[in-house]
Amino acid sequence: MNALRCLRAIARPSTAPRLTPSTRSISLLAPRRPILSSTSTLPVPGSTISPAIPSSDALNLASKISAHPALGSMQIRCGPRDTYNPSHLVRKRRHGFLSRIRTKKGRKLLMRRLKKGRWNLSH
């Protein structure tokens, strides 16, 4: 809030006479609400608005992006990818009993599971 007061003090120096917001011509602060111009008109209720038809430039946007020289080395990926490739060997190496025994934290984990009465201590 103090920062806002400082900005207001900069935008409107205290030595200048205070102007109302409607007569002020220049301000460093953006208005809190968007200001509509007097020439803008709102649609009449009950009138139909035709849907915007995309141009051919908008339809070819993906090809333009991928052909851009800055993105030549970058791979653009869309959609889900198959990232789970199960392997019993990797699972045993990472989460197996022998890997738990080798580290201090792993031994603590096994002791907690033993104390709790788990049927399976690890893979």
TrEMBL record:
InterPro entries: Ribosomal_bL34
Pfam families: Ribosomal_L34
GO CC, one annotated term: mitochondrial large ribosomal subunit
Keywords linked to the UniProt accession: Ribonucleoprotein, Ribosomal protein
Alphabetical GO biological process terms: translation
GO MF term list: structural constituent of ribosome
Sequence similarity: Belongs to the bacterial ribosomal protein bL34 family.
Protein name: Large ribosomal subunit protein bL34m
Organism: Bimuria novae-zelandiae CBS 107.79
